[in-house]
Amino acid sequence: MAGLALECDIQPLLHGRLESADRFDLIPDSVREQLAAARHKCRMDNLLLLAEAEKAIDALAKAGVLPVVLKGMDIIHRYGMEFDLRRMDDMDFLVPATQVRETMTALASSGWKLPHRIYDSNWAPYHTGLESTGPIKVYLEIHWNIIQEGRYRLDPADLFARAGELAIGGRQVLGLDIHDLAVHTLLHHVSSHFHRKLKNWIDLRLLSLDTGFNWETVAGRAREWGGAPGAAMSMRHAGSLFPDWFPGDTVRLFGPETLRSLALKPLLSSHPLDMYRKTSSRFVEILLSAAMVSSPWRLPAALRLFRGEPDYLRDVLDVKHHDS
Description:
The chain is of the alpha/beta class. It has helices at about 1-5, 10-20, 30-60, 70-80, 100-110, 155-160, 180-190, 200-210, 215-225, 230-240, 250, 260-265, 280-290, 300-305, 310-315; strands at about 70, 90-95, 125-130, 140-145, 165-170, 170-175. The chain is built from 15 helices and six strands. Helix 3 crosses helix 5 and helix 9 packs antiparallel against helix 10. The model is unreliable at about 115-125 and about 320-324 (pLDDT under 50).
């Protein structure tokens, strides 16, 4: 059980739920100890990450940059979740493209180490990473879009226009509109090649219970972004894992995607947690990426190779550091 919980990235949450229900009698002592150790590690890791996040937010505030906080850091603060129940691998901030230079310069001045290249998730740059300089590395990703440019059609300015206030450690930041966050969660699952981690679905469940949340709005926005095929396949995966959370009538709002399903049928996995098999294969990654495009003319954008850094990053990437 502990191994499966690790694979699904829910060890801390599983420990917390068993603890709150006083049902550790359901598992062997050895498993309880492993879950407790994982939760303790999550607590320590997240404490460090949150402390570094607050310093980064302060540095950006001095530079006049108000970021949108993404993913786990948003969910934990939006819903008051105990911070040792959801593991965060890193922190993700979305900033306007016009302020990327100020963002990177401010973070470099406050001790963050700039990268030598841009991360090219799905071979098209829309974010770049930094790392702290302390003995334990903490990673921060700066996004100027949340999805692959060219593959989808999204003006990040719309995200900022719909974003709402969010507080982290008494500091004001922004959080995505709940429907934007839901679509991002679905499309992130596509870019992660339908992995086994369940925390994305737990996040989506929390969003779906939020006042004002509407599944039809999510499906419509996915279509607006040109991400309906990927969102539909992600919802199929979610519905197969959690039919009570994401019932069939909700899944069908995103479209049948019958032809894509038939085309990808040879890749279907028999494992109850997996949608497709061999997703670690580069060939399968390319095939899935191609299959999720909304229109044939977007296929080149989905498959193109890394294009190099945007003009507004080239100068800050050359900044020298004391530990270079």
